[in-house]
TrEMBL record:
InterPro entries: Gal_Oxase/kelch_b-propeller, GK/Ca_channel_bsu, Guanylate_kin-like_dom, Guanylate_kinase, Guanylate_kinase_CS, Kelch_2, P-loop_NTPase. The keyword Thylakoid does not apply. Belongs to the guanylate kinase family. Residues 130-312 form the Guanylate kinase-like domain. Residues 367-389 are annotated as: Disordered. Its EC number is 2.7.4.8. It catalyses: GMP + ATP = GDP + ADP. Residues 380-389 have a biased composition (Basic and acidic residues). CDD domains: GMPK. This is guanylate kinase. The lineage of its organism: Eukaryota, Viridiplantae, Streptophyta, Embryophyta, Tracheophyta. One of its GO terms (molecular function) is GMP kinase activity. SUPFAM superfamilies: Galactose oxidase, central domain, P-loop containing nucleoside triphosphate hydrolases.
Amino acid sequence: MGEAPACFGDESFSSDFHLNLKEFETATVVGNKTYVIGGIDDLKSNGVRVFDKSIGEWVNSTVLGTIPKVLKGHKTMLLSKDRILVVKHDSKSNDCAWFLEVDTQFVRDQKKKFGTEVVAWSKGVIGDAERPIVISGPSGVGKGTLINMLMKEFPAMFGFSVSHTTRAPREKEENGVHYHFTNRDVMEEEIKSGKFLEYADVHGNLYGTSIEAVEVVADAGKRCILDIDVQGARSVRASSLEAIFIFISPPSFEELEKRLRARGTETEEQVQKRLGNAKEELEQGKSSGLFDHILVNDNLEACYERLKKILCLDGNADATTTTLTEVFALPLDFSMSKIDEKILIKSDSTDQKIVLDLSSIKGGAPGRTRGLHMYASDPHTGDDDKGKS
Ligand SMILES: Nc1ncnc2c1ncn2[C@@H]1O[C@H](COP(=O)(O)OP(=O)(O)OP(=O)(O)O)[C@@H](O)[C@H]1O
Ligand SMILES: Nc1nc2c(ncn2[C@@H]2O[C@H](COP(=O)(O)O)[C@@H](O)[C@H]2O)c(=O)[nH]1
């Protein structure tokens, strides 16, 4: 395999411009902009500063996504005009690869919203993580019941995205487990600051999925399940989350009302409001083309079996476990080169070589970049040891 010249964002750039790079900072040029990454101790920069060559100034930038905790020593590589790969020195394989998105669709949308320069961090997750699952449907149809059944049968496979809400907790609901209970002022501020993947006013309260809620599940190597309303599902569809969308419908409106009342968690006024909204949700759910699957929750067990079939969990012998990729250490210091969609990471001091394969990456900000593969490259022959991926 021939090595293509690497396009590094590194200190060499500082000879053109006096950016006064600090220790642990690198500079990567994309068009007119230079992205100075690192120096994470300077919390004000959130790990990134942006210099615009066309006006000769540092520009005010909104930095979205979870920021890598430590950026003391890293290499960067411009992958395409829309994202920069950042690989941390002296890190573990499960926390080494990060992407700074500078011109993806998500970033372009957010630029319009914030009216500033925007960049977004997205952590790279190793392995073929399955697509997240969005489950929607009117209140009382049985979404939570079905999700609980899945989580109970496949605890190692699924993780629940814990939403934020401004509604009051019900008896037995725990903060941080069922929801993050908050108040409207705080949540509105957090929405403005870009903390949420989606949010909606549902039955008179604010509900939202934070980017972090989805990332926590991906980091645990699990498939994320979101229980959100139809408005939220539409927002997630427009994002880069690449989820599967499932709508749960009741066998009849009367049965929905019966279930909602029998649950006994809402006041009469709330029941009326939820039933009123259910009519519109049912129309939208069934007609909008937003959902990949519609399941009628008549008999609970039968519906659960159909849900498992959609998720390919019917009779799959491996379904009770997730494949956890072995974690290994990256070299203290290294160089990177690019060969097609593979990044070769070569230790500066040993003969360790690692291949970071980006050919099947999915997702991205907001949320994790999934589908990375890493394996050792044979130090003597240079052959890729694909058996270890
Ligand atoms: N197939 C079913 N047959 C009869 N009862 C059901 C069925 N599925 C769920 N239920 C019951 O209906 C009630 C509502 O279910 P659940 O709380 O799961 O609804 P939900 O869609 O999550 O509602 P919400 O959106 O308000 O959170 C519960 O008491 C549950 O036990
Ligand atoms: N758009 C969002 N909708 C959400 C979220 N979390 C829950 N929900 C939906 O709200 C209603 C009511 O839930 P309840 O717990 O008060 O009964 C239900 O349809 C949920 O699907 C969210 O983060 N975003």
